[in-house]
Amino acid sequence: MPIFDVHIHIQPWSMVRRDALEMIDDASHRDAAGILSSAASVLRHLDESGVERACCINYVAPEVMGFTSEVNDWIARFTEGHRDRLLPVGSVHPRHTPDVLRETRRILDLGIRMIKIHPPHQRISPNAPELAAMYRECEARGVPVMFHTGTSVFPRARNVFADPMPVDDVAVDFPDLKIILAHAGRPLYGETAFFLARRHANVHLDISGIPPKSLPRYVPRLAEIAGKVLWGTDWPAPGVTSLRKNIDDFRSLGYGAQVETRVFWDNAARLFA
Ligand SMILES: [Zn+2]
Predict the structure, then answer these.
(1) Per-block average pLDDT, block size 10, for the chain (273 residues)?
(2) What radius of gyration, in Å, describes the C-alpha atoms of the chain?
(3) Is 150 left (phi over 0), alpha (psi -120 to 50) or beta?
(4) 234 Cα–ligand 1 center, Å
(5) Is the pTM for the entire model greater than 0.90?
(6) Å from CA of 102 to ligand 1 middle
(7) Span from the CA of 272 to the centroid of ligand 1 (angstroms)
(8) Ligand 1 centroid to 71 CA: how many Å?
(9) Contact in structure between 4 and 269 (CB atoms under 8 Å)
């Protein structure tokens, strides 16, 4: 069964502010820097882990993380020649670009396959009017938009933006926009994320950043919405040490082949067709 991981952080770590890097760069992640040094070594690591395709998450958040809009160009270059397996993910931040629509078109033309919005790190609400032009363009082009949902403990993160409910506005206003709620609202907003996925045909959940063994607690009705759940790990975020171990742990939960096939591959393959 092929695996499609929609949430791996393949980012320019040299941009990351020191206190944010200290959150990630612990002993369990000694190998991450080497693996992330080139597309070839990332692909080798995916092969060893049994992962066929991966979304390479990047977002613009200069104040909290240090990432500027250069991340879009960086990930486009990094994945060049390997886009069948490595899908570049980028971002547009209204306070860091003079023209949201023009920047959206520019990065999609670079080959960016999904937009990431990280409300607590970008300090912006999903329903901010400045984002409407970007949503409209992504909706027209069939490009998914992924929202970080749930709290963040990184220095300077603003958890007033952690609640996914403002995405309800986005899903109502852009009914054909492909929406992914990353982390399914963990740890405080699981019920909200589940509600949004059930209410809106265009809203999906990614279960990255949740230890698979805790899924029965955080997403107790996962099997009911298995057609809208996407596999993801959030590697190498704090606490996420192995792509392979997470896959094995998910399998051990006993959802069965039908649910596993949809979560590991079918749902993401359809979204990124
Ligand atoms: Zn993430």
Answers:
(1) 96 90 72 90 97 98 96 98 98 98 98 98 98 98 98 96 98 98 98 98 98 97 98 92 96 98 98 96
(2) 17
(3) left
(4) 5
(5) yes
(6) 26
(7) 18
(8) 15
(9) yes
